[in-house]
């Protein structure tokens, strides 16, 4: 990062601020978003265990990976994989929506 900033004639912090102003996220956030999107693709393929996906996309902590993945996609990596592989969608929706759907069918 320091090399890129120097090449642009900026300090590291100036570069990060300008980058965020232009792209709406810091370089770190951009990289993290790309890593999480790659993990999502790998989970859709379903070939590797979640831990291996975590390591393959560059995270060293399964806890951090799971937390960030959940924040970005609304469910844990393992739940996402089950949902994506055809698991019961009702299990993945809030209880109030399930009750609403049941009430709707009763009318």
CATH class: Mainly Alpha
Catalogue the unreliable spans: none
Strand fraction = under 5%
Report helical residue fraction: over 70%
Domain HTH araC/xylS-type: 1-83
Protein name: Helix-turn-helix transcriptional regulator
GO molecular function: DNA-binding transcription factor activity; sequence-specific DNA binding
Keywords: DNA-binding, Transcription, Transcription regulation
What does this structure look like?
This protein is mostly helical and 107 residues long. It is 71% helix and 0% strand. It contains seven helices and no strands. The chain is elongated and about 65 Å long. The model has no long low-confidence stretch (mean pLDDT 87).
């Amino acid at each position: 990062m320091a090399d890129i900033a120097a090449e642009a004639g900026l300090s590291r912090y100036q570069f990060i601020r300008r980058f965020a102003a232009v792209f709406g996220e810091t370089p770190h956030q951009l990289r993290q978003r790309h890593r999480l999107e790659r993990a999502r693709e790998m989970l859709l393929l379903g070939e590797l265990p979640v831990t291996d996906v975590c390591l393959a996309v560059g995270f060293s902590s399964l806890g951090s990976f799971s937390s960030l993945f959940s924040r970005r996609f609304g469910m844990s990596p393992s739940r996402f994989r089950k949902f994506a592989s055809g698991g019961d969608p009702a299990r993945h929706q809030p209880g109030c929506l399930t009750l609403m759907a049941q009430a709707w069918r009763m009318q």
